[in-house]
Specification:
- This protein has about 625 residues and is an alpha/beta fold.
- The chain has 2 domains: about 400 residues, ANL, N-terminal domain (Rossmann fold, 3-Layer(aba) Sandwich); about 120 residues, GMP Synthetase, Chain A, domain 3, CATH 3.30.300.
- It is about 30% helix and about 25% strand.
- The chain contains 18 helices and 32 strands.
- The protein has a 7-stranded mixed sheet, sandwiched between helices.
- Helix 9 crosses helix 10, helix 12 packs across helix 13 and helix 17 packs across helix 18.
- The longest helix is centred in the N-terminal third of the chain and has 17 residues.
- The chain is globular and about 70 Å long.
- The mean pLDDT is about 95.
- The protein binds coenzyme A and adenosine monophosphate (AMP).
- The site of adenosine monophosphate has 20 residues, from strand 21, strand 26 and strand 27.
- The site of coenzyme A has 25 residues, from strand 9 and helix 12.
Length: about 625
């Protein structure tokens, strides 16, 4: 057989013999009630996977491995250079700690369908918190620590949690991020008030607790009877994960239990090429989808050992940190964002630190979260001498849309391409009229409905927004929001977003949301935010401000104000550091701001004068304003 034949046959079967294919994959999962069929397509364009099936995701991630005699196998290795800690948990230990935490949560009267927000850094208790909710059928929503109180408040109001599980602090290189003041402020801002907050006191910061509402984690958990796993419907939500929308209101991506378990289990072997018991490392954060799927649920459902790393690629303590972790724990694969490798490359371009470690068991590097730029991929390949697999996915899809299935049928790597569609994905590229384009031509990337198991069935409490945002523009298709092309070999390259989402150091952010903050400044009449190219972070946001007539304050002060406001309202993770003041913004005759053109000018790229531009002379003004800020230099 030729390379790719196994993949192609399997992919075709996943689409043409959908029922049999997915029910076969579902048999790898423990069900308390087997599903009647694979797909419920009775209400297009809404689809549900494994109707009639009942299971518990925590059971699949923990108990079943213990029951099968693997209780002494390592489930989690917590490696924290920022605290100088390494802690290991066997499957039995993790199951017991999770069951105890679940028992304590259940004692508060929280159960199936109730929402619990988890606001915690990269510590094992964060994984236990997620799994404990799953154990009870409660729906968790993890909020990333780099967001500001306002963002947390928005999520509290949207999902109305009964309980918030938090830690006293996160640790960033050089600073302790106290979570409790942010949490208190968020609850103050929110209309919905959770009944309880349970706070894990870390030695680095002592949080003050509010009488009657807040509970100390240790006291809360100790001595509680362990809770059993509660069977839930395959279609019941496991979690809600908020991601950037086009407005300040984030989208609550819903993940179900059944389809997710099946998809993740399949992916560990076939995409990532991992065997149960092997050590797998995803260097991301539990606050992102990658952390949900491949720090916590995927490796555990599959019975692998997952590394949970509280540190950075550089500075904790140096650019050899990743190699140390791989060597020390004998990780066979690493999954991270290209930006992490750009950071390492910048500090150790010749790989001197790399040579200090023994990486002979290391097999594959997986990259995602942003476009894998060929220079970074080629550098990683040269340094590591293993396949570098770029793969494409989104919060919405929960697992890969396109990748190279190294455990099934490794195919040649083409730097710059994310390889081929995952089973269940019929990926197409369409032009503005909705017609398929020729191979190699760029257009909107869409997926023919239904999407595979594991992808999102809807947005939390917002089915209409789900339909409008993703399904309306190309009827019968899921609009990914990405543009790119498919080459003659069927390889998919993802080039850019078609909306206002930007990717800053692998973090997904909305420029529209930043514009809302800028526009709320008293002196600002109009504004725009674009993502400009950045050597390390891929993209960084850049603001344009048009001031109200008569404003006499120095521009520098106003820029400092808006920088501070974005940090306070969205969070440090937005990395909004620069804005320029201009007299006018370039617009079309119908008043649409030409952000794409501004971006090309800032990045010194060639651009075609938009035919619909209202006043072409503004572009020169934009260019002049950008130069002193270090942009549009060529
Ligand atoms: N809690 C609080 N603050 C956080 C945070 C967290 N969990 N994560 C990041 N921040 C803050 C940082 O401290 C920084 O604040 P500063 O402006 O005061 O310095 C800001 O948010 C930006 O952080 P970051 O994007 O991490 O930039 P950096 O310069 O500190 O580090 C990289 C750059 C490339 C090392 C880092 O971004 C990285 O490791 N990225 C990989 C991202 C990733 O794994 N994404 C998941 C997709 S697979
Ligand atoms: P998130 O929802 O945070 O995972 O971000 C998803 C977005 O990140 C996608 O829509 C893409 O724009 C981008 N992205 C993720 N992985 C890749 C990749 N491998 N190549 C190009 N872009 C990617």
């Amino acid at each position: 057989m030729a390379t790719g034949d196994i993949y192609r046959a399997l992919h075709a079967r996943s689409l043409n013999d959908r029922e049999a294919f997915w029910l076969e994959q579902a048999s790898a999962i423990d069900w308390t009630r087997r599903p009647d069929r694979a797909l419920d397509d009775s209400r297009p364009p809404f689809y549900r996977w494994f109707p009639g099936g009942e299971l518990n995701t925590c059971h699949n991630a923990l108990d079943r491995h213990v029951d099968a005699g693997h209780g002494d196998r390592l489930a989690l290795i917590y490696d924290s250079p920022v605290t100088g800690t390494v802690r290991r948990y066997t499957y039995r230990e993790l199951r017991d700690a999770t069951a105890e935490l679940a028992g304590a949560i259940a004692a508060l009267g929280i159960g199936k369908g109730d929402r619990v927000i988890i606001y915690m850094p990269m510590i094992p208790e964060a994984a236990m918190a997620m799994l404990a909710c799953a154990r009870l059928g409660a729906i968790h929503s993890v909020v990333f620590g780099g967001f500001a109180a306002n963002e947390l408040a928005t999520r509290i109001d949207d999902c109305a949690p009964k309980l918030i599980l938090a830690a006293s602090c996160g640790i960033e290189p050089g600073r302790i991020v106290e979570y409790k003041p942010l949490l208190d402020q968020a609850i103050e801002l929110a209309t919905h008030k959770p009944a309880h907050c349970v706070v894990l006191q870390r030695p680095q910061a002592q949080a003050s607790l509010v009488d009657g509402r807040d509970l100390d984690w240790l006291r809360f958990v100790t001595g509680k009877p362990p809770a059993p796993c509660v069977p839930v419907k395959a279609t019941d939500p496991l979690y809600i994960l908020y991601t950037s929308g086009t407005t300040g209101q984030p989208k609550g991506v819903v993940r179900d239990n059944g389809g997710y378990c099946v998809a993740l289990h399949w992916s560990m072997k076939n995409l990532y090429g991992i065997a149960p018991g092997e050590v797998w490392w995803t260097a991301s954060d539990v606050g992102w989808v990658v952390g949900h799927s491949y720090i916590v649920y995927g490796p555990l459902i599959y019975g692998a050992t997952s590394v949970l790393y509280e540190g950075k690629p550089v500075g904790t303590p140096d650019a050899g940190a990743f190699w140390r972790v791989i060597a020390e724990h004998k990780a066979v694969a690493l999954f991270t964002a290209p930006t992490a490798f750009r950071a390492i490359k910048k500090e150790d371009p010749d790989g001197k630190l790399l040579r200090q470690y023994d990486l002979k068991h290391f097999r594959t590097l997986f990259l995602a979260g942003e476009r894998g730029d060929p220079p970074t991929i080629e550098w990683a390949q040269r340094m590591l001498g293993v396949p570098i697999v770029d793969h494409w996915w989104q919060t919405e899809t929960g697992w890969v849309i396109c990748g190279n299935f190294v455990g099934l049928d490794p195919m040649p790597v083409k730097p710059g391409s994310t390889s081929v569609p995952a089973p269940g994905w019929d990926i197409q590229v369409l032009d503005a009229e909705g017609n398929r384009v020729k191979p190699g031509e760029i257009g909107a990337i869409v997926g023919k409905l239904p999407m595979p198991p594991g992808t999102f069935p809807t947005l939390w409490n917002a089915e209409d927004r789900f339909r409008q945002a993703y399904l309306a523009e190309y009827p019968g298709y899921y609009k990914t929001g990405d543009a790119g092309f498919i080459d003659a070999d069927g390889y998919v390259s993802v080039m850019t977003r078609v909306d206002d989402v930007i990717n800053v150091a692998g973090h997904r952010l909305s420029t529209g949301q930043m514009e809302e903050v800028l526009a709320s400044h008293d002196d600002v009449a109009e504004c725009a935010v674009i993502g400009v190219a950045d050597e390390l972070k891929g993209q960084v946001p850049l603001g344009f401000l048009v001031l109200k007539a008569g404003v006499e304050r120095p521009h520098g002060e106003i820029v400092s104000d808006v920088v501070r406001m974005v940090r306070q309202r969205i969070g440090p993770v937005a990395f909004f550091k620069t804005a320029v003041v201009v007299n006018r913004l370039p617009k079309t005759r119908s008043g649409k701001i030409l952000r794409g053109t501004m971006q090309r000018i800032a990045d010194s790229q060639d651009f075609r004068m938009p035919a619909t531009i209202d006043d072409p002379t503004i572009l020169g003004e934009i260019e002049s304003a950008l130069k002193p800020a270090g942009y549009a230099r060529k």
